[in-house]
Amino acid sequence: MSEKKTVPSRRGVLKGAAVATGAMAVPMVATAQTTTLRFQSTWPAKDIFHEYANDFAKKVNDMAGNRLKIEVLPAGAVVPAFQLLEAVSKGTLDGGHGVIAYHYGKNSALALWGSGPAFGMDPNMVLAWHYYGGGKDLVDEIYKSLNMDVASFLYGPMPCQPLGWFKKPVAKVEDMKGLKFRTVGLAVDVFTAMGTAVNPLPGGEIVPALDRGLIDAAEFNNASSDRVLGFADVAKNCMLQSFHQSGEQFEILFNGAKYKALNGELKAIIDYAVQAASADMSWKAIHRNSEDYIELKKAGVKFFKTPDPVLRAQLAAWDATIAKKSGENPLFKKVLDSQKAFAARAGQWQNDYTVDFKMAYNHYFGRGAKKS
C-alpha cells in the first residue's frame, strides 16, 4: 500500500511563506469601479449659477474619491434648459442643476418653492419648511403624480431678487402695465395680473431679446448673473426688491434608478455634499454679488428701490393667483397650506427675534456716521 501524500493548500503555502520571511500577509483588494454621472445645468457656462453646479459636483467627487464622479455640462449641451426634468427622469441625463420653478408648466404647485412671498419667509426659512415642515414629502408626491423618476434635493437659498431691468425706472403701478416682461414660474401669473405681457424666456435668451426690443424689461436673479449676462449693455435701470421671487432655491436632480443603485455610503456623501454646497453657495453669493453690485454701478447702472405701492400690488396679485390655483389644483392647495402653517410659526419667531441690521449699518456707513 503506497503512502498517501498530503498536498498543502494555497492558503497554507502563503501563510507559511509569510511566517518564514517574517513578513505580514497582504490581502488582495479589488479595484473599485468608478461610477460616472453626466449632469447638465440650466445655466450658461459663464454664469455663477453654473459655477454653483460645479461646486456641488466637486464636493461629491472629492469625498467619493474614485468611486463616484459627477461631470457637469452647461445649459443646452444635451437638452434645452426647460427640458431638464424629463431628460433626467428618462435617463438621457443622469442628473441636473436648476430651479424647481422651471417645472411650473407640469404642475403649478412646484412653483411654490420659488415664486411669491412665501407668507413672509426668507429663502432660508423656505428651505427650513422644505426639510423640517413637510415640503420634501410634497415634492416627492408631486413628482410621483407626474411619473417623474427622479431624486430631488433643494439647496442654496438665493438672495432676494430684483424686480428687474427697465429702460425707464418704475415709479408707480401703472408703469408695469403693457410692458413686455420676462419672468418664470408663478411670477408669470402675478405680473400678468398686474397688466404686463409676460414671456418666460430661459436665462441665456433674455439679454438678446431685450436688446432687440422683443421684450421691454426683464428679471433674472442677482448682480453677478446679471452682470455676466450683459444686462448693463442693454438697460441702465435696475429696480431692487420684489416679492415675485423672494424665497427661491436651487434644485439638484438625480435620475431615480441611477440614484437608487448607489450604495448607502455614496448616498450619504451626496446628502452631506448638498448641505455643504448650500452653505458655501450662500457665503459665495454674499461675496460675489456685493462685488458685482459695485461694478455695475461703476458701469453706469442706476439702482432704484421698487416703490412700496408696486410691492403691495404684487401681494394683491399673488393673493388672487393663489386663490385661483388652489381651486384648480388640490396639490397646489396642499403645498400652500403646509407652507402657511410653518410660516405662521417660524415667521413670528424670526420677526420677533431678529434685530434691525440696517440700524447698525447706517450707524457705521450711513449719512452722519462717524468718520474714523
Automatic annotation (TrEMBL):
Highest taxon above the source species: Bacteria
Residues that coordinate or bind substrate: Q161, R182, E219, Q245
Signal peptide residue numbers: 1-32
Sites where the protein binds Na(+): F220
PROSITE patterns with a match to the protein in the record: TAT
NCBIfam families: TAT_signal_seq, TRAP_S1
PANTHER family: EXTRACYTOPLASMIC SOLUTE RECEPTOR PROTEIN, PTHR33376
The protein's name: Twin-arginine translocation signal domain-containing protein
Annotated source species: Hydrogenophaga borbori
Taxonomic path: Bacteria, Pseudomonadati, Pseudomonadota, Betaproteobacteria, Burkholderiales
